[in-house]
Amino acid sequence: MPLDKPSPPPNHDLPLHGQSPRNSEDTWVTTLRSLKATEALGQAIGYRLHGGEIIALTGQLGAGKTVLTKGIASGLGISPDQVTSPTFTIIHEYSGQLRLIHADLYRINSHDELRSIGLEDYYGASTAVVIEWADRMGPEFSQDYLQIHLAHTQRYIRLATLTAHGPLSHALLQRLRTETQT
Question: How many domains does the chain contain in total?
């Protein structure tokens, strides 16, 4: 039985430090000043998922992709302590308000190998899919996804660039912006 949906995180916990001239209707850039801020952004995203969304995470090793995923899980009512990087198992599945599929493509070396894991079999209206190292998907990628690129700007500071590709991810990005910036 799914857990009750948690309350949205209070606005003061969200990583909304300044604006960037790169913000547009389909792109939102925000500065994350700590791991806690990275997890808070993930929680805000998770809380706003309705099902069917694909979150494509990119960035260097250690950029915070798994921390962001822990936050997404928390927003779906899943204990973040359950979430670990599926680097060796490729896919982890968690149950909460929605089914959360967490994939890590770091060790995927070819399109044949990618097809063999059957990631697209997990896509569905009652599921949210988070893909670490999503840039390895290439042409196999869905037409609708929210890309989140994490980049270090200083030792503990990250720049998160959220870009919507398709109507479902655009609606998610708009909900996130509207509900976290009030």
Answer: 1
